[in-house]
């Protein structure tokens, strides 16, 4: 009789042999069959053993223990993630994968399905654009100010025969009020926060300006009027956010090597190289960071619409005072706050021209300094901050003001958001001239920064380059890849926080995640003494904190709130320039759309019409789906102008949909005539 267990063995090996068919064979034949399989299995095991022994000899014990330790490390990390975050255990960390292409790509871990190009910051294709742009190299580094404001008194420190020096105070009672400028007065005590000092010498017909300087201080009277802090610094550390406008991870390495080395080696800063902007200009990205709102509509890769939270009517035509924002959050929590933007037009209120805040929204603001520098100061005062003669620029004044703020409020938790607009905005290597100054600033504030959360980031990638630069692969990538590095207070660096940050640094991130991190520091981590690592979903927020395990969904262009034209994940694309007539058709369609936009904005009387001079590139995106085909086009026009856009075409109807259009040329003031009606970079002014 055929035994049931023997039948199972035949099914296991799936042998189509007479021996494996039910029959009336004797038990003796069955035993012979058993012996055959036993000998077969033993032979296989002996062969495997010999092969393993040879491999062991070749690779050695070290390789074995390395493999065991690596496996244990990954397993421990997975177990830690499961127990700490409560996420199902499918977030296995996989190693970076590299594919061999003209430009290598790195696969971001966590199975995020996002590959990003890997570039050498000194790649041969970028070198022609790295020209020497240091306009301060011949300035007078021995020059010292003639005047000084110290301990509430301004004095003359360099007397010269025939020179007459006085000062005046510039004050804004409120942000939207007119500036109040005092009469010129002699040296002596002053409670002025922003003081313009000037000197004159007698000329042939009248006195001649020979000196102008902006002094700042935190007046004791202003500090005394403030409430005593409700929170303690030991539990609520300082938070400093420094924004370097237009700086990318690559340009930071080229231009600020000393500062970055100090920040990483002395403060154990973590580099986040995969940050993607979410809007075309500074203002759009500032709304994401300050308010958590998307103000630029678009399409996420894959075709899903990305709706704007606020239309221009909401974020631009109305004051922002009643909107929840990062400054109010810190102020209400008991922090002393300052906003330092070294540009007079201010990020939130320009391009387009918007109302911004009506009233003061922080305890201190640098705005009066920039107003003196660019509007109300005498010519010598303005000249003193141009850098070419006296080596001093507006960012130096901003650094000094930060130091005064930090010294005045050293006994209480502080929040500072400082925006360096002018340092690196215009040229790829412009920021290099500030490396020594910023390094010296970090060194003299070592203890302050070592006990604070310090976030150094940028608003967007580098946008002020030539159109030729953006035709290189590294240039196209840098356009949308802002810089981000973060350090944490030294007392928290051994509690697992750095490990989680480094884990998240290998994933695609946005300004919404930076914002969520700031809110986590302010509102949630203090309750856990900054040991919270479990995933946290903050109500009404789009991002996830870098200090915690992030959710396990894929972080890529299809899942994060990033308009497709800004997402840095590499997409497969096909060059369509050789398809007969296609480039001309799309180029003319783009300019027709621009013309329609100018009509819609009632700007045709002010702005020129464009004509195509060259379609620089036309690519079909590999992730086009269904009946829609998605193209990326770059067009140069007469006048000149250079436009970059994503176009979606319905394959059946031929209908085109145009997403946000970027103007790549350095258009300067050529669009300013549109500001009183509807500012748009699509305009090239007739006058």
Automatic annotation (TrEMBL):
Any Pfam family the entry gives: DUF229
Keyword presence, Transmembrane helix: yes
Record has Membrane as a keyword: yes
Transmembrane feature ranges: 35-56
Keywords, alphabetical: Membrane, Transmembrane, Transmembrane helix
Domain of life: Eukaryota
Protein name stated in the entry: Protein CBG15598
Record organism: Caenorhabditis briggsae
């Amino acid at each position: 009789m055929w035994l049931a267990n023997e039948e199972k063995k035949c099914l296991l090996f799936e042998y189509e042999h007479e021996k494996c068919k039910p029959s009336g064979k004797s038990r003796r034949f069955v035993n012979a069959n058993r012996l055959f399989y036993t000998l077969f299995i033993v032979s296989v095991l002996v062969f495997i053993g010999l092969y393993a022994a040879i491999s062991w000899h070749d690779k050695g014990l070290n390789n074995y223990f390395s493999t065991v330790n690596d496996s244990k490390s990954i397993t421990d990390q997975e177990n830690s993630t499961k127990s700490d975050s409560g996420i199902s255990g499918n977030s296995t960390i996989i190693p970076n994968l590299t594919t061999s292409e003209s430009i290598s790509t790195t696969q971001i871990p966590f199975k995020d399905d996002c590959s990003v190009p890997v570039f050498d910051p000194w790649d041969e294709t970028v070198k022609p654009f790295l020209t020497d742009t240091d306009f301060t190299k011949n300035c007078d580094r021995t020059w010292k100010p003639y005047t000084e404001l110290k301990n509430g008194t301004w004095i003359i420190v360099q007397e010269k025969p025939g020179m007459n020096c006085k000062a005046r105070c510039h004050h804004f009672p409120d942000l939207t009020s007119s500036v109040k400028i005092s009469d010129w007065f002699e040296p002596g005590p002053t409670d002025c926060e922003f003081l313009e000092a000037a000197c004159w010498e007698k000329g042939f017909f009248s006195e001649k300006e020979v000196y102008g300087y902006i002094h700042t201080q935190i007046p004791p009277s202003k500090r005394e009027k403030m409430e005593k802090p409700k929170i303690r610094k030991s539990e609520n550390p300082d938070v400093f956010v420094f924004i370097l406008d237009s700086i990318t991870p690559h340009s930071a390495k080229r231009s600020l090597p000393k500062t970055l080395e100090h920040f990483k080696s002395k403060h154990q800063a973590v580099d986040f190289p995969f940050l993607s902007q979410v809007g075309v200009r500074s203002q759009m990205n500032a709304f994401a960071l300050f308010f958590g709102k998307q103000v630029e509509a678009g399409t996420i890769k894959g075709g899903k619409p990305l709706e704007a939270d606020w239309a221009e009517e909401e974020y631009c035509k109305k004051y922002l005072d009643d909107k929840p924002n990062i400054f109010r959050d810190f102020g209400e929590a008991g922090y002393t706050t300052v906003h330092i933007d070294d540009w007079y037009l201010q990020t939130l209120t320009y391009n387009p021209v918007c109302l911004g805040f009506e009233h003061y929204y922080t305890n201190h603001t640098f705005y009066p300094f920039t107003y003196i520098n660019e509007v109300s100061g005498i010519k010598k005062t303005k000249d003193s901050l141009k850098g070419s003669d006296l080596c001093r620029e507006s960012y130096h004044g901003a650094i000094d003001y930060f130091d005064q703020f930090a010294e005045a409020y050293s006994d209480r938790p502080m929040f500072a958001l400082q925006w360096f607009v002018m340092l690196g905005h215009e040229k790829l290597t412009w920021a290099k001239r500030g490396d020594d100054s910023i390094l010296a600033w970090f060194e003299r504030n070592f203890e302050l920064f070592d006990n604070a959360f310090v976030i150094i980031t940028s608003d967007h990638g580098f946008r002020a380059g030539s159109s030729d630069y953006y035709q290189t692969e590294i240039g196209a990538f840098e356009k949308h890849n802002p810089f981000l590095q973060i350090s944490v207070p030294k007392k928290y660096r051994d509690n697992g926080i750095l490990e989680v940050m480094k884990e998240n640094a290998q994933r695609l991130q946005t300004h919404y995640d930076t914002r969520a991190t700031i809110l986590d520091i302010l509102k949630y981590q203090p309750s856990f003494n900054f040991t919270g690592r479990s995933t946290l979903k903050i109500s009404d927020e789009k991002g996830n904190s870098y200090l915690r395990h992030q959710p396990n969904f894929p972080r890529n262009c299809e899942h994060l709130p990033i308009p497709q034209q800004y997402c840095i994940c590499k997409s497969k694309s096909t060059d369509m320039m050789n398809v007969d007539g296609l480039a001309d058709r799309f180029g003319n369609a783009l300019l027709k759309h621009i013309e329609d936009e100018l009509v819609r904005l009632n700007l045709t009387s002010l702005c020129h019409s464009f004509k195509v001079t060259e379609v620089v590139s036309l690519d079909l995106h590999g992730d086009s789906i269904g009946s829609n085909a998605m193209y990326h086009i770059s067009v140069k026009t007469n006048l000149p102008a250079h436009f970059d856009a994503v176009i979606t075409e319905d394959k059946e109807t031929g209908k085109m949909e145009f997403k946000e259009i970027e103007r790549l040329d350095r258009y300067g003031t050529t669009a300013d005539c549109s500001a009183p009606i509807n500012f748009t970079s699509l305009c090239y002014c007739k006058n």
